[in-house]
Amino acid sequence: MRFSNCRLITRLAVLLVCLAVPAWAGAGGAQSKEKSAQAAGTARLSEEILKRSTVFFAAPPFMPAENVYEDVVKDHEQGYFIVSLQSRVEFAKGHVPGAVNIPFEEITEQKSLAMLPRDKKIVLTCDDGHRSMMASLYFNQLGYSATTMPMGLSHWNRAQSAAPYTASAGYPASKEQTEAAPDKKIPLVPGKGAGGDGLITERTKAVLASGKSLFMDRSELYREEAKDGGKGVFVVSIQRPEDYAMGHVPGAANIPYSQIATMESLSKLPTDRKIVVVCYIGHIGAAVTLMLNQLGYDAYDLRFGTMGWNDATEGLGKMKGFLLSLGQDNKYPVEGGKTK
Fold this sequence. Notes:
alpha/beta
């Protein structure tokens, strides 16, 4: 009787194992399908983002404050539409005359997009120009024609800027070349939008909703580079190669901004470290930073870029004189507050 019971128990155990195997196999198959779908979504998302960003980085759009003042504010040319990305509180204190207010955190909202004209050049302003460049990339990805006013209110009327440019830190610049190893995989991120616009808006909204700061101050990067040989950050300079050779943030690898929106360039970026993007004054770097975060990287824009790091370096290139002039205050008139 005891032997019979043992055989019965053994048969039951085998039966349970046999019944469980299809469940395990099904679970594995479901996970595999989910990963495949996620990979396909990531590929589609990255393809859309890179395709729509390539033209933008070929010729990043800028409109200096001097032109905005003369052509748009004074002469009232009808082909422009000024948008201030200030917070509502800061906008009420003072903004570029004629601007409508869309706070930066709300650029992906449908009510915000509905305000933007398709038949005019959109001129974006903010406190320092950095958020304007991020919004410019996003709006151009959606097919709008949007340009950035360099240095924002800091160059227009510094008294009205909540984050004005301050003098260069004068940190050491390097001419030593740093190579970035390729063959890295890009992050897997969800992409469920119905079309290209939906995918890009979905990812941009997720980036803004994350609550993370998209910017890094030069003093913070200086401290990070001093810790453990800078292993906690991966610094990428998007200067032109000839400018990079003349001076850049020490330890930065060079991927020119005109080449950044390619899979080859992305293969050089790590997914397990903070990526700090450095350009000339922090603007093109801001757009690259948004694109990388759209793609799932942990990226940060170095505020005021190479100029804020060291404005004496020849790494600022042939436009050095113009770039340095952007640190000046035009004291142009504003609406909504007193001009100082």
